[in-house]
């Protein structure tokens, strides 16, 4: 009996030494991450209303926060006034002179033409009398000059009438149309800024953080709400390069989530990247060799993990 007990004790001691001599079981610990979207305003404004709470499930396009910006409203009013003025100028250029102005120009031309005809008739009469020696050369020259001046005035009046009848020049109409388009562009720019006073979620997910408070000033580009997409989660592991073959691209492995009562899930590696030098673990040899670098490995669950949330630990044990 004592012999059997001694043999059993010896076998247990031998097994303990053998177990102690075995290399430790590989053990890796990482944590779950998820896609987060920070929603921030493009214009500085004061927070008027907050429509969501932390933990709330929302769809893409949901209204998160309303901002109040008197400056944007004032710029919109200015842009609309500039548009109206430009449109009035374009309408004026397109329509040309008023009918009354055209009528006045036509009558002025007719009056000038009548005066020119009379001056031409007088010149012909004086020329005939001069040929008969009844008037002096001075009188003939004055009549000729008056006829020429009256003809020039009639031509100028006709040009004024043609100008009024044809309306604005093509260049003037083009310039007026360009001013109208410029004003419309300014309005579109201000309307785009006004639309940014209503912050909407670009993605579906869960509201993770609400940093906005009614009455506070929201600076430009500072996030006021963070939305996390729980459908887009992955595991992050820091792996020394001599263990990296266990987590090759496309490799699948099993991890355990202690926060979910030890539930296991299968993951697939889709990303590897070396960490900076300060993350080096240790030298492989004391006298020569190289330093073992650390790599960041991302692995996505093969199937959705119900209840998994960012920050939960994932333990990977044993050989992959």
Automatic annotation (TrEMBL):
<feature type="domain" description="YbhG-like alpha-helical hairpin">
    <location>
        <begin position="68"/>
        <end position="191"/>
    </location>
</feature>
<dbReference type="Pfam" id="PF25881">
    <property type="entry name" value="HH_YBHG"/>
</dbReference>
<protein>
    <recommendedName>
        <fullName>YbhG-like alpha-helical hairpin domain-containing protein</fullName>
    </recommendedName>
</protein>
<dbReference type="InterPro" id="IPR059052">
    <property type="entry name" value="HH_YbhG-like"/>
</dbReference>
């Amino acid at each position: 009996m004592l012999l059997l007990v001694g043999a059993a004790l010896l076998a247990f001691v031998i097994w303990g030494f053998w177990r102690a001599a075995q290399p430790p079981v590989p053990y890796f610990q990482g944590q779950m991450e998820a896609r987060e979207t920070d929603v921030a305003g493009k214009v500085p404004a004061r927070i008027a209303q907050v429509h969501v709470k932390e933990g709330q499930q929302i769809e893409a396009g949901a209204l998160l926060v309303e901002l109040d910006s008197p400056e944007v409203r004032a710029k919109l009013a200015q842009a609309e006034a500039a548009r109206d003025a430009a449109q009035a100028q374009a309408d004026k250029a397109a329509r040309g002179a008023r009918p009354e102005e055209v009528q006045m120009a036509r009558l002025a031309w007719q009056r000038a033409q009548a005066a020119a005809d009379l001056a031409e008739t007088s010149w012909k009469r004086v020329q005939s009398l001069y040929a008969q020696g009844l008037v002096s050369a001075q009188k003939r020259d004055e009549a000729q000059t008056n006829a020429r001046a009256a003809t020039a005035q009639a031509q100028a009046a006709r040009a004024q009438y043609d100008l009024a009848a044809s309306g604005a020049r093509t260049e003037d109409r083009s310039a007026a149309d360009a001013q109208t388009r410029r004003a419309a562009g300014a309005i579109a720019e201000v309307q785009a800024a006004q639309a940014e006073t209503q912050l909407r979620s670009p993605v579906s997910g869960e509201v993770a953080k609400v940093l906005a408070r009614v009455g506070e000033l929201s600076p430009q580009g500072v996030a006021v709400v963070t939305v996390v997409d729980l459908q887009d989660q992955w595991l992050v592991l820091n792996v020394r390069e001599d263990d990296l073959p266990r987590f090759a691209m496309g490799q699948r492995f099993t991890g355990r989530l202690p926060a979910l009562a030890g539930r296991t899930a299968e993951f697939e590696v889709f990303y590897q990247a070396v960490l900076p030098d300060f993350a080096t673990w240790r030298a492989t040899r004391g006298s020569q060799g190289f330093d073992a670098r650390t790599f960041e490995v991302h692995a996505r669950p093969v199937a959705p993990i119900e209840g998994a949330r960012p920050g939960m630990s994932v333990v990977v044990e044993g050989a992959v």
